[in-house]
Specification:
Blueprint lengths: L5 H4 L12 H11 L4 H10 L6 E5 L6 E4 L4 H11 L6 E6 L12 H4 L11 E7 L3 H10 L7 E3 L3 H10 L4 E5 L1 H15 L7
Parallel strand pairs: 2-6, 3-4, 3-6, 4-5
Antiparallel strand pairs: 1-2
Length: 196
């Protein structure tokens, strides 16, 4: 299974970058069901996340990931993952409150955005979508320095900024934010639509 072994699963940070213990649990479950270790590791090595679930785009100098957030619990998982980043990175929120997202965004108050203040590699946070100002206010209350925050209402211009980024970019959209912004990223990098 290439250079991925069962021992490496505990520390592996390959392209599947799954939050929590999902990777370990998947390999352990496959082995418990009788799949050989080599086959379980090979399956994990071939897996590519898709459609807003740590989806990877070949944009920017070091790549871009999109991680759909719909509530405080999911947002907190993503923030925990971001705490593991060691290289300078950029964060982008595309937050809407349309019916498909849930019109009540009070969950933003329950998300642990204070964790962002502990992320030394965090360079800039760009906010977009219908709730950009609401997210900005919440991040300021969480202690994020205002000079790290910018609002970009134009999704086309935001896609250009992501494509020009020198470090990794992590995009945290709401559902409709993802549906509106993702096609612009796909056009930039030649990726596939979610149904392909």
């Amino acid at each position: 299974a290439g250079d991925l072994t069962l021992e490496a699963v505990n520390t592996w940070g390959g392209d599947t970058v799954l939050a929590g213990g999902t990777l370990k649990a998947g390999v352990a479950g496959a082995i418990a069901m009788g799949l050989p270790v080599e086959a379980a590791c090979a399956a994990v090595e071939k897996f590519r996340p898709g459609f807003g679930r740590m989806e990877k785009f070949d944009l920017g100098a070091q790549g871009t990931r999109m991680v759909l957030i719909k509530n405080a619990a999911g947002c907190n998982q993503v923030l925990s993952f971001l705490l593991t980043q060691r290289e300078p990175f950029r964060l982008v929120f595309v937050t809407n409150n349309r019916p498909a997202d849930g019109t009540d965004v009070s969950w933003l108050e329950d998300a642990k955005f204070e964790r962002l203040t502990a992320m030394e590699p965090l360079q800039v946070v760009t906010l977009s979508g219908l709730c950009a100002d609401t997210v900005r206010e919440r991040l300021i209350r969480a202690g994020v320095a205002e000079d790290k925050l910018s609002v970009q209402p134009d999704l086309g211009a935001l896609a250009d900024e992501v494509a020009a980024a020198e470090g990794p970019v992590f995009i945290l959209p709401s559902y409709t934010g993802m549906m509106e912004f993702r096609p612009r990223l796909i056009r930039k990098c030649g990726g596939k639509e979610f149904w392909e």
